[in-house]
Design goal:
eight-stranded mixed β-sheet, Spore Coat Polysaccharide Biosynthesis Protein SpsA, Chain A, single chain, alpha/beta, 10 strands, two-stranded parallel ribbon
């Protein structure tokens, strides 16, 4: 167990000495977010004042060395409580603005936030992105109420997003996490979470802070660690997730490598947890669901297809080392298919991801080469989804994602049968599958 304190700046230590303790902590990681972070601070402050007036709260901004006015805006933004009819303004929101140390990235910022939560002995925490324009004061209640009042340990966000926003989540992170660990957490890499102070300390004690988790694998790591540690998990409906969406055909290879690399590393670390799981169950959802307007995401199918076909030619020898002969043969048949008829079936896509996970586990290629080789395949599957969902509403397109998840679950046996297992692991799987199914909550 890692019980050593994480170093903080002398200024931050002094602020902690003045605050001493708190009930609630809200963390905002940032880097050059002067254009949006003022709105986030106002929403957080108003939400805490409205929904948790009797709790001692602190806002922590862990900044990655912004060269704009981000930190000054956090420190000096006023929270206007007049529209909320809140008359008690005696307890002002405590703020700690601090740089973080370690590998540059969101994970290192979270580590600093977790450390401050531990020092202040907080009961409940939330973290929100610094660039989300759709945050409202109600987000504080939705992320913190299940922790403080309902006995949950971890709150994942549940958003309405455009059907072409979050394609890495929709095609990989959600279906794979659901099939592996058996819990239907719709946005496992959403970015806005609630959790207990105890879980924050649990995260601190894990030896991951010199890995890619410290960069941008933190969201999927937090969700997976919560599930596999036995934490009580729920979701809260936050409405729209409005940020700066990207065309899936744009250069997402870096984000894809970070997210999928973290997913595969977590599979290696948690095999005893996921190997026996044979089905998924719904996760409780708080908040009133309503229809919201979502910002359109423009996609360039032709560019995605061009990059897929380039990979089919240039990366064929690498794909041959990662993928099964059957998967490679199915992909090769797509070489001359017209764009309007191009499809990567869900069954093939699940097989591709499972083959890649097995290749990663067996180290058949350097990790970076393997993950880079997945980018054209991901773009091909995204192009296929765009073709299938043309003319569908975002709600209707959700049925396609649900069908993909069921395919991942159905084909999980393909992965389990090929995953190297010790004698003890095989015994655990046999025992788990012999048990009667638990009732669904």
């Amino acid at each position: 167990m890692n019980t050593g304190l994480i170093p903080l700046t002398p200024e931050t230590e002094a602020l902690l000495g003045a605050v001493r303790n708190a009930d609630i902590l809200v963390g905002i990681p940032s880097f050059n977010n002067a254009g949006t972070i003022g709105h986030v601070v106002r929403a957080v402050g108003a939400g805490l004042a409205k929904y948790f007036p009797g709790h001692r709260a602190v806002l922590v901004n862990a900044d990655g060395g912004s060269t704009d006015d981000t930190s000054a805006i956090v420190a000096h933004t006023m929270v206007d409580l007049e529209p909320l009819f809140i008359s008690d303004r005696q307890s002002t929101l405590q703020r700690i603005v601090t740089p973080y140390h370690g590998i540059p990235g969101k994970g290192s910022a979270f580590r600093t936030i977790f450390e401050i939560a531990r020092r202040l002995k907080v009961k409940a925490c939330a973290v929100v992105d610094s660039d989300v324009r759709s945050i409202t004061p109600e987000w504080m209640e939705l992320l913190l109420h299940p922790i403080i009042k309902e006995g949950y340990d971890y709150v994942a966000p549940y958003y309405r997003r455009h059907k072409y926003d979050g394609t890495i989540t929709n095609s990989i992170a959600y279906p794979l996490t659901r099939a592996l660990y058996g819990q239907e957490v719709r946005q496992p890499i959403g970015g806005d979470f609630g959790f207990t102070g105890e879980l924050a300390q649990h995260y601190l004690e894990k030896h991951v802070w010199e890995s890619d988790v410290a960069r941008f694998g933190i969201d999927i790591w937090m969700t997976t660690e919560a599930i596999t540690s036995g934490a009580k998990v729920c979701q809260s409906f936050l409405g729209a997730k409005i940020h700066d969406p990207k065309d899936p055909a744009a250069d997402l290879s870096s984000m894809l490598r970070q997210v999928v690399g973290a997913l595969f590393a977590l599979m290696d670390a948690n095999a005893p947890s996921w190997l026996p799981v044979t089905n998924s169950r719904k996760v409780p959802l708080f908040g009133f669901q309503y229809e919201v307007g979502v910002e359109p995401v423009n996609v360039n199918v032709e560019r995605m297809m061009d990059l897929f076909h380039l990979g089919l030619t240039d990366l064929h020898p690498i794909w041959a080392r990662i993928l099964s002969e059957d998967a490679l043969d199915q992909l090769s048949r797509l070489r001359d298919v017209p764009i309007r008829d191009f499809r990567i079936p869900d069954s093939l896509w699940a097989q591709i991801i499972y083959d890649a996970a097995l290749a990663h586990h067996q180290s058949v290629l350097p990790q970076e080469h393997l993950l880079k080789a997945l980018t054209p395949l991901y773009l091909g599957k995204t192009a296929s989804f765009v073709q299938d969902s043309q003319g569908l509403t975002t709600a209707e397109a959700e049925h396609l994602i649900e069908a993909l998840c069921r395919t991942f679950e159905k084909q999980k046996e393909y992965l389990v049968a090929r995953w190297p297992q010790s004698h003890d692991t095989r015994e655990v799987i046999g025992t788990a599958r012999a048990r009667p199914e638990r009732s669904q909550p």
